[in-house]
Design goal:
- The protein has one domain: Beta-Lactamase.
- The protein has 8 helices and 5 strands; from the N terminus they run αββααααααββαβ.
- It has a 5-stranded antiparallel β-sheet.
- Helix 4 packs across helix 6.
- The protein starts with 19 loop residues before the first helix and ends in a 34-residue tail after the last strand.
Length: 226
Amino acid sequence: MAYRAGGQRSVPRPFPEGSEAHAYLQDYAALLDAVAFPAVVLDQRWDTVIANTAFRTLFREIGPHPTAMPDENFLRFVLFHPDASTVLGDHESRWCLPMLAQFAAALEQRGDDRELQAVRREIAQDPIMEAAYRHGLPLWMREAGPRATALDGAVRPLLHPDPRWGATECRVVTEATTTLQDLGCVRLTLVLREPRRPRPPHTTRRGARTGRRTAGHLTVVPSTDL
């Protein structure tokens, strides 16, 4: 795992111990732990290489999942974890669709990547997410424009488990040092903003409150409309 419980420092992966890359990432992990905002280093597959204490705190109440933990792969977490919406506010429209767009671009560039192919198969196994990916996503991208799909600079809602933050927003900042670029990695920092005023709970047509999802699929693009 990229980080461990109990406040232990992040352990970079998958670079061999004793290598210059591993040593650099160990020092970079120390740097991230000094950052107050949630920060994580991801590789080109969105695998979590290192993450800081604030990142662990943000996702501390997330339940277990075999393939979609935030400390394992951030893309899979956003797309497939049933608890993702408990932390990522407006999950489907503000997090899931932009990440689907990022994934589609990566798959177009590196279609032979086995891990990306595995994610694509998992999307195909969910009829609603497959419909969103194949039909809804291109339409959304045309209407929303390229800025809506970008991570860097985006302002996204968060539901922080710490009541001092609660329902708030974050500015997503992505950056990479020369060494991180050479390693195929990027740093993603969620710069927390002052908490928003609480909004009335969103309800379905039947008046039931929406909250934790029971399945890892989209509902913003109903298959019956496609």
